[in-house]
Amino acid sequence: MISKGKLRLRKIVSDDVGVLLQWENNPENHKYSETPNYYSREMMQDFVDSVHDIFVNNQLRLMIEWDGCVVGCIDLFDFDPYHLRAGVGVLIDPKFRNKGIAKESLLLLEVFAFKNLNINNLHCIISVENLVSIALFKSCGYSLSGELKSWLKTKNNFSDVFYFQKLHR
User: Fold this and answer.
1) Which residues, 6+ apart, have CB-to-CB distance to 66 below 8 Å?
2) What is the DSSP string of 130-142?
3) Domains of the chain
4) Which residues, 6 or more positions from 146, have their beta carbon under 8 angstroms from its beta carbon?
5) Global model pTM greater than 0.90
6) CB–CB of 75/59 below 8 Å?
7) CA 23 to CA 17: how far, in whole Å?
8) Which residues face 124 on adjacent strands?
9) Which helix (H) or strand (E) holds 85?
């Protein structure tokens, strides 16, 4: 568990399956995702049971609690222990957005990643249309490193994405 003030990042548990299914199966969240899949309860339970060791699964999902309430989740994924890099993604339930929780969670996760995992490079891929996420990552010190054309398949076409990075200094 990682915490600061009212914010707590904790490992996922079986009790989180229901809310994870809501978020992962919400078509609104698929607009900006690289994996717009729909999950069954069994698939989500298997994920929850397997994602606890970043060195085994190359992924770590943490639930975000704000003042004792589950409000979102944050991930390190595509973890590369040799090159010391990982992708990062964050999702906040719509009821809790615009409160600064995503920014605080991202900054807290960075401290953990840089200090405890010795990560040198955190990165994210964001749809050029996702202005909220672009602003979030810029506000946390991520630098635009490039643009990938036609990267995400959309309902009728393809969308470009920006590639952002933050290096540990």
Assistant:
1) 6, 7, 8, 96, 99, 101
2) -HHHHHHHHHTT-
3) 2-122 (3.40.630.30)
4) 162, 163
5) no
6) yes
7) 10
8) 164
9) strand 85-92
CA distance 140 to 157: 31
% helix, strand, coil for the chain, step of 5 = 35, 35, 30
pLDDT tens, the chain, 169 aa long:
798 999 999 999 989 888 888 888 776 766 666 665 677 778 878 878 877 788 888 999 999 999 999 999 999 999 999 999 999 999 999 999 999 999 999 999 999 999 999 999 999 999 999 999 999 999 999 999 999 999 988 778 898 999 999 999 7
What one-character-per-residue DSSP string does 95-112 give? GG-SSSHHHHHHHHHHHH
The one-letter amino acid at 119 = I
Q: How far is CA 141 from CA 93, 103, 166, in A?
A: 23, 11, 7
Pairing of strands 121-127, 85-92: parallel
Tokens, residue 53: 């060791």
